Amino acid sequence: LPIYPRLIITPDNKVLMSYSKYSANIQDEKIQGNIIMDLDRSTEEIFQAPAISISPRLLDGRQKNWMPFIHENKLYFIAQVCPHTIYEVDWKGNLESKLVHQTNWNSNWFLRESLRGNTNAIKMDDGNYLSTFHTVMTKEGCGFYDNGCYIFEGKPPFKPLYCGSRTYLRAEAAREMHYRKAGSIICNFPVGMVQKNDKLIISYGDNDSIVKLLITNIDEMKKTMFKVKY
């Protein structure tokens, strides 16, 4: 069952959909992908090429919410936010994904919870990348999903430079009736981000029920962040 899909345009102008695929054993959850469009041929035809493994087959533990970005015609995925763990991925499926960078750092986030992946990263005008994360805080049996952002450098080893200290999209901003898990989560969950002119557009799910768009800009996102201390 594929869940949490994300889209990225590869350097050869194809659209790759990545997703978590899990089985009855939750620890077997891995990241896979399929090329679903060739933009050199059509902007309308959707197909499904054979699946490729994005997370290495022998990587231990549950893999979820890996975040893609492109740098110098190479495809990378952020497997963990903290430590910042980067894999280089062959979208043609010929080579095993390889761990290329891992940076330990201290976040400024207001919760002492694990930083988990959200959207793809986008390259800003200054050459650095903006990406996002979420945390889950449990209170009285209910999980609250808050969302923050961070900036990492635009060259290897892609070290985090700035990190949010407060949320740009609060759990309590969720307004829709739950499609599932009512009473167990309060959730706004971003999965996509694009920059269009001076606007930053983030797609997210409101309580797993309806897809919505948050329209903001990079300057507003930067207001939530402070410089990372090593």
State the end-to-end distance: 40 Å
| H/E element order | EEEEEEEEEEEEEEEEHE
| Assembly of the depicted chains | single chain
The portion of residues assigned to helices is under 10%
Question: Roughly what is the average pLDDT, rounded to an integer?
Answer: 93
| Low-confidence region ranges | none
**What fraction of residues sit in β-strands?**
over 45%
Largest sheet: 9 strands, mixed
The count of helical stretches stands at: 1
Tell me, briefly, the overall form. globular
The radius of gyration is 17 Å
The tally of beta strands, per DSSP, is 17
List keywords for this structure.
mainly beta, 2% helix, 9-stranded mixed sheet, 230 residues
Protein model, in words:
The chain has one helix spanning 218-222, and strands at residues 2-9, 14-21, 30-38, 52-53, 67-71, 74-80, 84-89, 98-103, 116-117, 122-123, 129-139, 142-152, 160-164, 185-196, 199-206, 210-216, 225-227. By secondary structure, it is mostly beta strands. The strands form 3 sheets. Strands 9, 10, 11, 12, 13, 14, 15, 16 and 17 form a 9-stranded mixed sheet that branches. Strands 1-2-3-4 form a 4-stranded antiparallel sheet, with no helix packed on it. Strands 5-6-7-8 form a 4-stranded antiparallel sheet, with no helix packed on it. A hairpin with an 8-residue loop joins β7 (84-89) and β8 (98-103). The N and C termini lie far apart (40 Å). The model has no long low-confidence stretch (mean pLDDT 93).
Outline of this structure?
The protein is mainly beta and 230 residues long. The chain has one helix and 17 strands.
